[in-house]
Amino acid sequence: MLELLPWRKWTLCSRVSYDKLSPFFEHLPRMLKHSLTGGEQDEHMTDPPFSAATPKAPTHQKTETKKIVKSSPTQKSQDFPLSSELPFDFRYSYSETNPAIEPIGFREPPKFSPFGPGRLDRKWTGTCAPAPFPADLDKVAQARQAVLGEPLSEEEIAELIEKYRYNSNCSSQINLGRGGVTHNMLEDIHNHWKRAEAVRIKCFGVPTLDMDNICFHLEDKSGGQIIYRHINVLLLFRGRGYDPKNRPIIPLMLWKPYAPIYPKLVKNVADGLTFEETKEMRSKGLTYPPLTKLRFGTLRPNLGQG
Q: GO CC annotations (predicted)?
């Protein structure tokens, strides 16, 4: 019968092994009890499973004394509205606009000044922010001559050209694009003049058609002097007596204003011709091959001479 039921054999063996170990388990609590001393046993019985953390002694933190920071002249100059002593009218672009031509309409209300509300003491007219008083040309010329100082010698000019013209660091360069000489570019020029005697300006696009116009406005609006000119690369010298701490206040334009609406440069009917003759000449001109193709950002210094 036991052979037919083999599992009975394993149960009997387990009983025998348990009977042999039962005396050991009977004496196990007594052995554990005597293994602990009296003090340790009491401590073991009274110690809760999660004891509260002992409070830490308060540490005396060092009180930091607040230093009184005096406001610098540049911080004081940020009190609005700003008042600038520059003798010319503020425009978005000085080289690409003609003050003599009045617009016939506006794409946005002229009351919205790009300098921000209440940030400038000049009123925005839609195209410019005119100076409050007419400029004294003699006084302006004397102040500019005092900053420029004595003319540079050929050796000094060659040294400045060698130092700033062939510098491979592009961070010391200002790129002049299709906007021409813009108002915010004047602030960039003075920021470069803080750490360098001259700033390199590289011109691109449509303004390169008239480089003389760009050179005039750069010298007139910034007060510097162009000491080097090669195709589209210019070097603008700040002057011997230039002091960055006494630089003029130039309020920045917060956004680009919409261009006003001007009269058409190309009339529908040319002077001395009828409408049919003008239309015939235009259709004939469209069939001719182009002299050159103008691309965005290309140089065009010799286009008008061809």
A: ribonucleoprotein complex
